[in-house]
Amino acid sequence: MDLLLFSDVHGDRDACRRLVDRSSEVDVVVGAGDFCRMRRNLRAPLDALSAIDTPTVLVPGNAETEDEIAEQLSALDWPEAHVLHGEGVTLGGQPFYGIGGGIPVTPFGPWSYDFSEEEARRLLADCPDGAVLVSHSPPKDAVDRDSKGQSLGSVAVREAVEATAPRLTVCGHIHGSWEETAHVGPTPVHNAGPHGRIWTLSGADEA
Fold it and tell me: Which of 45, 80, 100, 197 has the fewest CB atoms within 10 Å around its CB?
């Protein structure tokens, strides 16, 4: 199964159109949150992305909420989109599980859609073994370093990865680690970024 992974387009419609162009190459598209900036103008990037006719998994970032995505999608014709936050979906026989938001709580203030580590543990409780875990926030100490080298990832996400051994964990959020890959045990963890990366779930990961 080939996946197109991305995150953090932050309203860049050109980036969204490039992802649409590449989406026909894969079996599933995975968007790990932050489609807009600071809860503003969410419609434009989702409208651009809705041209994707490949099954698509989305999680909210900290720049938009689950309800805000659902509200916008209700006005768009995008039946292939699955918004996951504390829940999962199976596509092509492969389970996907999603959790959105900033974890732990960010310093950005009330606009940021954030969760404590304890709230995240509850949202991750039903993650099945061997899923593709899509988390806006990276696990602690894996692709979670900002431009100053600080580790900003989530302990709860790391615990879930260690407990359930996902086939792949896809994240974003920490721009200083975009396009980097690490491992937590046997699980590859990829901080996707806005440009998109094609990943083959068989164990090889390229492009």
Answer: 80
